[in-house]
Give the backbone structure.
Amino acid sequence: MNTMAGDGWDHVIIGGGIAGLSSGAHLAPMGRVLVCEGESSLGYHASGRSAALYEAEYGAPVTRALARASGADLAEMGVLSPRGFMVVGRPQDAAAFAQDTVDLKLTPISVEQACLRVPILNAQAVAFAGAAEGAQSIDTDLMMQLYARRIRHAGGQIRPSSPVTALERHGAGWRVQTGGDWIEARAVVNAAGAWADRVAAMAGLAPIGLQPYRRSLAQLPAPGGRDVLDWPMVVGAGETWFAKPEAGKLLVSPADADPVEPHDAWADDMVLAEGLARYEEMVTEPVTRVETSWAGLRSYAPDRTLVLGPDPAAPGFIWCAGQGGQGFLSAPGAARVLAEMLGGPASGQPAAILAALLPERLRT
């Protein structure tokens, strides 16, 4: 049995997606941080396959609180760009559109206004439209790079191709096996995304009931060769599909949420075809070519709220899971909360928000 050089870390973070990197960046000033990513690159799974949008009114109430607290950080990082957000519905979508208007604080607009913003919308199919002007695109790759840079600048390390294969308690801390070597840590942060429950089992702890859901995306050429740069993201009422401009292309998703086991996800052709058909119903330009497609996993706790903080059965085991597709928009706020829970500066969140995030709420 080998012991890796440089052992004795304060925080070993399992997972190199946005959850692990943002947590690491906020914990690095508090002690030695090591991020272990099982894949060869950071953000390989969900984080690298996200069509992230900063819309602070999206998600569960606690997620929205963290998202609102993240806005200033995201702006300061320079990862936001104007996008806008629009929901459209058919005549039979009246109830779903009305609920979206309330949940997302949409401003109703006319069908004519909607078609001016997105010229390919079919005015004969669209009966309802509402907009949220403040929504912004997030440069996910840049955001992960910036957090990785902060970790390294503070003396932390990031090790790709370093899957964690065993965890065991060691005195007041933990021993972590990766790459056949063992390292010691005062605390372990479980930011393993869809695999977070499996990491807990490895540590001899009960799962929180995390469920991954597949979300598929197709990249299409710009419809009719149009310039889509200034188009908003468009979502079908009730989130039955969405289309988001990205780098001169159009990303279209069936907004699927099929429960799956943790795995390297791929798009299901039939699900993707059904979603593209729902999109085509609302536009005048048919889909003639799919350039590429992929899928990611959005993982939720049973109450659809993030899980942040020490496990009640093992205080040195820290959960950072259940982001549910909202990891990027809430990452700065969530990382500040996690740092506060581990002895860092106050996050500014009220006690009720902190309590609602703790894993003990899911223990029976």
User: Anything to note?
Assistant: Confidence is low (pLDDT under 50) at residues 1-6. Residues 61-77 form the longest helix (17 residues).
